[in-house]
Design goal:
Length: about 425
């Protein structure tokens, strides 16, 4: 089911995207109050946008723009909106996205080709372990995509290992869609209740919200912990409400595949200039084929590297590597630049740590301060020294460490109003 455009040459994909780019720029110029004003303010000649390189002539769009001028991005009357979704609000106030009937069809197509990329086929049964309510676009997208693939769906929702295993044993799904750290809870529950999980029907899991790979695509600590016990395939997928598009791994696990019919990708430096091949930068995108709220040069805040070599699966599209971190979550600590995912990986190394929270604040010198709050099985001075030594070895610095209880930490990390575990809180003053 690989779309034909994804098997074309680099130059053919580029020509295809340039035609789509001209269409979307003309569309927002005619229909988007926000982009009409933005282009006028910057004296943009939209007719001159003919190539992907010409995108540099247009200003970028930020999350702050979406928050301040949310309604002005809408290109259709509200009577054409079929679904109202909101962003998770991880880095600020949630933003509402309206989707038309055509947008929902595009969303279904995106997820169908993404799941197909990960090996899900007609005849499979998939257990959906994310919420489909609370205005969550991804849960709806997964359902629509699986339906388009003619795949059976078990809508269990998030959490409750007992209910998850009840459904797995009763309906025998072949794949799960889940936050990967929850798979560890499923394993723990299975071991406690004598469930032979390696003899279950599960072949693989599509994992959202947390990284599975290191930058060289090897398994990170979290995915090793899962696969060392449960012999299933893990597939990473990266997406956001704003892009309405997913970058999902194929069986070769060398990055999330780009769908050029749905999105144009740029990776930009601090000055909004394209980075060189192999360098990291902020993922910035222009959506294609969206009717209600298309976005032009939208900066995601996610720092990534892209990979352009052809994939053994037959796709010639670029691939997005694991997210290094979020730009707004970058930490300057004792002369070292850090991102929370690197600290998460180190903490996941320790079996003794049951839960953790990384808190960031500004100290009285005006610099970044990090406090790691840990729930551990056994609290000793030796273990504290071991953690500090591990941080020094891996990151060259050691944050402050505080031990706490699961009664205090679990309600924060597993906030029922959040769509995924909260392991990082930024309390820095602006």
């Amino acid at each position: 089911m690989i779309p034909a455009i994804e098997k074309q040459s680099f130059s053919e994909i580029k020509r295809f995207q340039e035609q789509k780019l001209k269409e979307v720029v003309a569309y927002v110029q005619a229909n988007s109050p926000f982009y009409q004003k933005l282009f006028a303010t910057h004296n943009c000649n939209t007719a001159a946008i003919q190539t992907l390189e010409d995108l540099q002539q247009l200003p970028v769009t930020t999350k702050e723009d979406l928050q301040r001028y949310n309604d002005d991005f809408l290109c259709v009357p509200t009577s054409k909106i079929i679904d109202f979704a909101t962003t998770s609000g991880t880095l600020g106030e949630p933003v509402t996205f309206g989707l038309s009937e055509n947008d929902l069809e595009r969303l279904a197509y995106n997820e169908a080709i993404s799941f197909d990329c990960a090996g899900i086929k007609e005849g499979d049964i998939v257990q959906l372990m994310t919420t489909i309510d609370r205005r969550f676009m991804a849960g709806l997208a997964y359902f629509l995509g699986l339906r388009k693939l003619k795949v059976g769906v078990i809508r269990v929702g998030a959490g409750i290992p007992e209910l998850q295993w009840d459904s797995i044993l009763k309906y025998k799904p072949t794949y799960l869609i889940t936050v990967p750290s929850f798979l560890l809870k499923l394993i723990e529950y299975a071991e406690t209740h004598q469930i032979e999980y390696n003899k279950s029907s599960i072949k693989g899991a599509i994992c959202i919200g947390e990284a599975l790979r290191n930058q060289d695509f090897s398994h990170n600590v979290l995915s090793k912990k899962i696969t060392d016990k449960w012999n299933i395939n893990l597939f990473s997928t990266y997406a956001s409400t704003e892009m309405s598009t997913a970058f999902t791994e194929c069986e070769h696990a060398v990055g999330g595949h780009h769908h050029p019919e749905l999105i144009i990708v740029e990776v930009l430096d601090e000055n909004n200039q394209p980075v060189n091949d192999g360098e990291s930068g902020e993922l910035t995108f222009t959506t294609l084929g969206i009717e209600a709220m298309p976005l032009i040069r939208f900066k995601t805040g996610d720092i990534v590297k892209t990979h352009n070599s052809p994939c053994p699966c037959g796709r010639n599209t670029l691939r997005v590597g694991p997210v290094l971190g979020r730009k707004q979550q970058m930490i300057k600590y004792k002369g070292t630049t850090l991102y929370p995912p690197a600290m998460n990986d180190i903490l996941n190394d320790f079996e003794n740590i049951e839960n953790h929270l990384i808190e960031l604040y500004t100290n009285n010198l005006g610099t970044d301060e990090i406090v790691l709050k840990l729930v551990v099985k056994e609290q000793t001075d030796d273990f504290l020294h071991e953690i500090k030594d591990h941080f020094r070895a891996k990151l060259r610095v050691t944050p402050k460490i505080e031990f706490t209880t699961k009664e205090i930490l679990n309600p924060i990390v597993f906030n029922p109003m959040s769509r995924k575990p909260i392991h990082f809180i930024d309390n820095r003053s602006n």
